[in-house]
Amino acid sequence: MTLAEQWKQEGQTQMAQRSVVDALEARFGSVPAGLIEAVLRETRLEKLRGLLVDAIRCESLEGFAQKLGK
Questions:
Q1: Is 60 a residue whose pLDDT tops 80?
Q2: Which of 27, 44, 50, 58 would be a feasible disulfide site paired with 64, CB 3.0-4.6 Å?
């Protein structure tokens, strides 16, 4: 992988992480720091895409945290 490709992938990962956090904040207001940190540790784009859907659909932060742990 070239350096440019690595930067592109890192940018996509950061955008996906931020989107998940933004969706949680939009739905629930304050999000615990530990939950945000867990989202930011996830680097797999497919997992992050699924987490974004979960963040939009979940009924509670606890429910989202369970899905994040899987």
A1: yes
A2: 58
